[in-house]
């Protein structure tokens, strides 16, 4: 379904610096990263080594960005990476990462080390945006010499520490604003015609087509099913334009597309997608779905890689 032209730019012509500046001038601070995210990080110092891995110095504000590393680190344990807020507007990803860190890491660190990045894009969090201030999508920018500082800072930190991850779960949302704002803006920026997709009502995951793990994805879906509903395919048998591989699971080429889930060599990777605009859910339930997704992945690895019985 085509939509009307986005109010910035000329149809058929990609944006230049003038259009990007016009877009930036329309963005407004709507909530506080410091009050809502950093304050929660500051309460986790007893459970984690909290490290500032960089600063995003933007005109609106200067944003420190943080990593939580679990205490009692043991090099003999497998290490898990949890990322949230790659798209800052996707609220439950940020608060799901924090809720998992606070409530479940004390139990699971007997088997795993954890690296948790609650909010990669604090400017996006504050302005409820998918892009950074330079109209760059961080979740298409995880590659060498990235133009997105959000990505470059994190990749540099991970490279310096030479972590070997067994699992990386990247917490996201699919929202109605994908069709009303973000896809039209993307088409305008690129000088193309926007075609909206069907917004799926429910939770789904995006696995990597470059290293598919169907049983792992199924374990994540089954864990989340206990919290919220799973997205059905549309009439074409697809979710957001991609074929459904199994219930609630589609595939993207994570590394080729520069997605966050493609930046490590972890054998088990997935991107979660919660639908917060559903009449069947609530903000709290969306956060719980993100937590359940992480637990589902961990429990699968405990049983199938470590040979441990699961005791939540």
UniProtKB/TrEMBL annotation:
Keywords: Hydrolase, Metal-binding, Zinc. Belongs to the peptidase M14 family. InterPro entries: AstE_AspA_cat, Peptidase_M14. Residues 29-312 form the Peptidase M14 domain. This is Succinylglutamate desuccinylase / Aspartoacylase family protein. It comes from the Bacteria. Its cofactor is Zn(2+). GO terms for molecular function: hydrolase activity, acting on ester bonds; metallocarboxypeptidase activity; zinc ion binding. The keyword Nucleus does not apply. GO terms for biological process: proteolysis. CDD domains: M14_REP34-like.
């Amino acid at each position: 379904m085509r939509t009307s032209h986005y109010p910035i730019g000329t149809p058929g012509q990609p944006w230049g610096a003038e259009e990007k500046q016009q877009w930036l001038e329309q963005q407004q601070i709507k909530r506080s990263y410091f009050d809502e995210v950093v304050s929660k990080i500051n309460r986790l110092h007893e459970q984690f080594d909290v490290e500032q891995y960089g600063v995003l110095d933007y005109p609106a504000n200067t944003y420190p960005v943080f990593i939580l590393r679990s205490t009692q680190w043991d090099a003999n344990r497998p290490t898990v990476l949890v990322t949230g807020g790659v798209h800052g507007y996707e609220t439950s990803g940020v608060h799901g990462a924090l809720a998992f860190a606070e409530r479940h890491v004390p139990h699971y660190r007997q088997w795993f080390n954890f690296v948790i990045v609650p909010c990669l894009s604090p400017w996006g969090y504050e302005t409820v945006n998918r892009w950074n201030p330079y109209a760059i999508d961080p979740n298409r920018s995880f590659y060498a010499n990235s133009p997105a500082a959000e990505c470059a800072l994190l990749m540099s930190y991970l490279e310096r520490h030479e972590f070997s991850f067994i699992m990386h779960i990247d917490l996201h949302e699919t929202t109605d604003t994908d069709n009303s704002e973000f896809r039209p803006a993307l088409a305008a920026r690129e000088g193309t015609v926007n075609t909206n997709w069907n917004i799926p009502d429910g939770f789904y995951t995006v696995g990597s087509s470059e290293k598919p793990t169907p049983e792992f994805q199924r374990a994540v879906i089954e864990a989340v099913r206990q919290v919220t509903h799973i997205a059905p395919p549309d009439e074409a048998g697809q979710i957001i334009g991609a074929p459904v591989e199994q219930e609630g699971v589609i595939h993207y080429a994570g590394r080729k597309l520069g997605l966050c889930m493609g930046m490590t060599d972890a054998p088990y990777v997935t991107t979660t997608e919660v639908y917060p605009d559903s009449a069947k859910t609530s903000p709290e339930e969306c956060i719980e779905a993100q937590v359940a997704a992480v637990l589902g992945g961990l429990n699968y690895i405990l049983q199938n890689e470590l040979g441990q019985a699961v005791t939540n």
